[in-house]
Amino acid sequence: MKRILFSHSYFLRFDPKQWALGQPYPPLGTIYAAALMRNNSYDVSLFDTMFCSHPDSVKNELRKSKRDFFVLYDDGFNYLTKMCLTNMREAAFSMCKIAKAEGCTIIVSSSDSTDRYEQYLNEGADFVIIGEAEHTLLELTDHLSAGLNDFNSIRGLAFIKDGNIVKTPGRPVLKELDQLPLPAWDLVDINAYREMWLKHAGYFSLNMSTTRGCPFKCNWCAKPIYGNRYNSRSPENVLAEIKMLKANFQMDHIWFCDDIFGLKPGWVQQLAVLLQQENIKIRFKIQSRADLLADEATVQALAASGCENVWIGAESGSQKVLDAMDKGIMIAQIREATQLMKENGIKPSFFIQFGYPGELKEDIRLTINMINELLPFEIGISVSYPLPGTSFYEKVKADLKKKTNWTDSDEMALMFSNTFPPSYYKQLHKYVHQNYHKHLAKNSLVNLLNNPFSVDIKSIRKAVSMLYHAPATLIEGIKLKKLEEA
Ligand code: SF4
C-alpha cells in the first residue's frame, strides 16, 4: 500500500491578523482529497501546518516513517488561500524542497500553483495539479504506483518532461458531489482548533462546503480551482455530514464556506425541512449575494434553518463602481436584502472593496454613506487585489511592476496606480472602520435614549463607546484628508 503525507501551506502564525483573530478553520479541501485517496486504498496521514511555526517541522514528520508521496494540497474553499499570500508561497517552496530531500514524489495543488505552475515546478514540485484536484491526484498516483511514466493522458496536470514544462488539457469539474466521500475529519486535531476558538470567540465553529464554483462573473474574482460551474451536494448528503460533525465534535456553529450558499432553487427550503424533521438545531454563517437575498421566502428559509449571519459582497455604494466590476447587483438590492435579513433576525455583513479602477472620491463617499445608513453587523474592508485569470488583472497587469501579491492578509497594499496613492487606501481602511463603529455606537445611544428600560448591557457598552469612537474618527479623518491633499 502506497503511503501519502498530505499537508498544506497555510501557516496561521505567518498571517498576524488571522493569528490575533484566533478563528482558524481546518483545511477542508485537503481532507476531502485525503478521504478519496483513503477510499482508494492509499495509506494517508495529515501534517496540518495551521499551528506550526516553521516549514522545517515537516522534516520530523517525514522522518517518522517513509512516505511515497508528499501532497501539498491547499484548502481551495478558504478565501485566505485564494489570496496567494507570499508568506505561504515561500513556506510551500521550503516544504517541497524538504520533502524532495526525504525522497518523496511531490504533488502540489493550490490556487497559487494553478496560476504559477512553472514556478512551483522549478522550486521542486514533480507535478502540479491544475484546478479541481481530487480525481487528477488519484489518477496520477495510480499511474505512478503502477510504474507508468507517460502522464500526457492525465487531464489537469503540469510537469517537466525532457527539460520542458508540459501542461495537459484541463479536467472538467465534478458534477456529482455526493459521490465524494465525506472529508477525513478524523485526521484533524480538532481540539487544537476548538481551544483557539473558545479562547478567542467563546464558541467553536467548523467549516463545511455544500457547493463548488460560482456562475457569476464579477470581473476581479478568480476561481482557479472550482471555476464558473455551480454544482451542489444534495441536502440529504449535507445533513449526513452535519450529523456526523455534531456527534463527533459537538461544534457550536458552522461556516458554510461556499462562494454562494443555496443558489439552487428550493435547496435552502429542503435543508430547512430536513433539519426540522430530524429536530437538528444548528447555527451557521454563509456567503451569498444581495440579489439572491432580496427575496423574502429565501431569507425566511435561511432563518428557519439556523442562519445567523450572511456575508454579502456589497463592495461599493456606487452603482458606477458595481457596474464597472460586472457585479450584476443594484444598490437597491443591497438595501432590500439588508432590510429583509434584519427583519428576519439574520445579521447582514458586508465585504467592502476600495480602489477599483475609476473609483473617485465621490464613489468612496457613497460607499461610506451606504455603510452608515445600512449599519451591517460586521464589515470586511479590502482594496482591489488583482489575481491572474481575471479581466481586472489583465487591465492593471502592466502596472503591477514587481509586486503582485500581499505577504499576509492584512497588507492592504494597492499594487497598481489609482486615484490616490497606496498610503491613502491604508488610512481609508482605518477611517472607515472607526466611522462605522462610531455609527454603531450612535445607533445604540439612540436606542438607549428611546427605550431606556429595554436595552441590555452589551448595548449600553456600545453606546458608551461613542466617547472613544467619535474623537478617534475625527483624528483618522484628519489624517485621511492630509493624504488626500498630499
Ligand atoms: S458572486 Fe462572489 S464568488 Fe461569484 S464571481 Fe462574484 S465575487 Fe466571485
TrEMBL record:
Q: Which InterPro entries match?
A: BchE-like (IPR051198), Elp3/MiaA/NifB-like_rSAM (IPR006638), Methyltransferase_Class_B (IPR034466), rSAM (IPR007197), rSAM_horseshoe (IPR023404), rSAM_sf (IPR058240)
Cofactors: [4Fe-4S] cluster
- PROSITE patterns from the UniProt entry: RADICAL_SAM (PS51918)
Q: Which UniProt keywords apply?
A: Iron, Iron-sulfur, Metal-binding, Methyltransferase, S-adenosyl-L-methionine, Transferase
Q: Which residues form the Radical SAM core domain?
A: 200-421
The record's GO CC annotations read:
cytosol
What is an example of a GO molecular function annotated in this UniProt entry?
A: metal ion binding
Which SUPFAM superfamilies does this entry report, sorted A to Z?
Radical SAM enzymes
Protein name per the record = Radical SAM protein
Which organism does this record belong to?
Answer: Mucilaginibacter xinganensis
Upper lineage: Bacteria, Pseudomonadati, Bacteroidota, Sphingobacteriia, Sphingobacteriales
